[in-house]
Amino acid sequence: MQKDQFELALARPAQKAAVTIETIRTQRTSAAAFSLACNVSGLEDKEIYLALDIDAGYFSNIKKGKATLQGDLVAKFCDVVGNTIYLEWLAFQIGCTLMMIKSEAERRAEAERELRVKAEEENRLLRSLLIGKSA
Fold this sequence. Notes:
Layout: H1 21-25, H2 30-41, H3 45-52, H4 56-64, H5 74-81, H6 85-92, H7 104-134
Helix pairs in contact: 2-6
């Protein structure tokens, strides 16, 4: 390979699978939660550790419970495996749960949607009343 050419890593998206919160919380160790997150993704281990740019041996040690995932790799790990199972398990260990943070724009859009739905319902009701009176 020439010096100016780069090898492109082939990456496929993780599978989206529903895992109940109870299943996540019943994992006995961080290694079990980490392995569950990996397994649910449908990706091969190699696809995950290459995407995270970590050594295969280190990845194996995480799955065995002999090492932990570095904190600055947690978000990337969740993105690669397409779930937050590992992070949800970690949060549960201190009595917490995860909640997606909404931006101000998302909160405003949601409020506008709720107002629009309410106005549409009122509009439908008024139309049905008017149609009923004219008949």
